[in-house]
């Protein structure tokens, strides 16, 4: 392992820690292994495994602001966190998009601020080959999607419909904290100022909310509305 990669690994696995709790951040892409972790904030299963080795019984504070990434890496991370023997509190600071939405649901308590987002959509991949290869890829993607749906199913809010979740997955749906609470067992937190990280991976998403692309524009619009209301004596 190169010195650069070794330093990166240390950055990913060493977090704030006390005798009873530890902090874990998902602030980049979810990648398959350390070779794919080109950004200091990217996370991968091996790093999470190493992080959890000496944390048994400790409470985890998990902070997420991720556009997603590798489905299989994300599912592996979700299962590792679910097995962890310690109370897990998840904070979605900006967004938990794509497979990061699955990781977010690993928490015992999940807090999504009113101005943060959960995004669910159909998994996608690249494929080349003949017609048989393309048909097989489509079939495989359907099976992978069903695995993701099963995670969502395990965390449905009381009275929520799995059919509604399937429809939202089909359409690529961004849910703010208040909307997400209608479908999943989460708590809505206070709106906070945050900066989303729009990576190259997210360019494939069709419906990224304006708040994530240009948060300052939304803030300016709110300020103008407030100033106009004051001027009118509202």
Description of the molecule:
By secondary structure, this protein is of the alpha/beta class. It has one domain: 2-enoyl-CoA Hydratase, Chain A, domain 1, CATH 3.90.226. The chain contains nine helices and seven strands; from the N terminus they run H-E-H-E-H-E-H-E-E-H-H-E-H-E-H-H. Strand 3, helix 4 and strand 4 form a beta-alpha-beta unit. Helix 2 runs parallel beside helix 3. The termini are far apart.
> What's the overall geometry?
globular
Global Rg: 19 Å
Question: What amount of the residues lies in strands?
Answer: 15-25%
So how many helices? 9
User: Which H/E pattern describes the elements?
Assistant: HEHEHEHEEHHEHEHH
């Amino acid at each position: 392992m190169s010195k650069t990669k070794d330093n990166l690994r240390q950055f990913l696995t060493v977090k704030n820690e006390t005798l009873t709790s530890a902090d874990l951040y998902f602030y980049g892409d979810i990648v398959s292994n350390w070779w794919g972790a080109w950004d200091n904030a990217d996370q991968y299963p091996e790093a999470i495994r190493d992080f959890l080795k000496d944390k048994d019984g400790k409470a985890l504070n998990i902070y997420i602001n991720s556009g997603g990434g590798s489905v299989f890496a994300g599912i592996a991370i979700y299962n590792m966190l679910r097995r962890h023997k310690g109370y897990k509190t998840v904070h979605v600071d900006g967004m938990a998009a794509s497979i990061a939405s699955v990781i977010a649901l690993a928490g015992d308590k999940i807090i999504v601020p009113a101005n943060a987002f959960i995004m669910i959509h159909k998994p996608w991949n690249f494929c080349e080959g003949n017609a048989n290869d393309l048909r097989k890829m489509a079939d495989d993607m359907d099976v992978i999607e069903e695995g993701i749906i099963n995670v969502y199913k395990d965390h449905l809010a009381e009275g929520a419909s799995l059919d509604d979740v399937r429809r939202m997955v089909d359409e690529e749906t961004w849910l703010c904290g208040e909307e997400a609470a209608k479908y999943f067992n989460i708590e809505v937190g206070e709106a906070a100022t945050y900066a989303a990280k729009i990576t190259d991976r997210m360019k494939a998403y069709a419906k990224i909310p304006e708040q994530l692309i240009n948060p300052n524009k939304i803030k300016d619009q709110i300020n103008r509305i407030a100033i106009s209301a004051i001027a009118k004596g509202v």
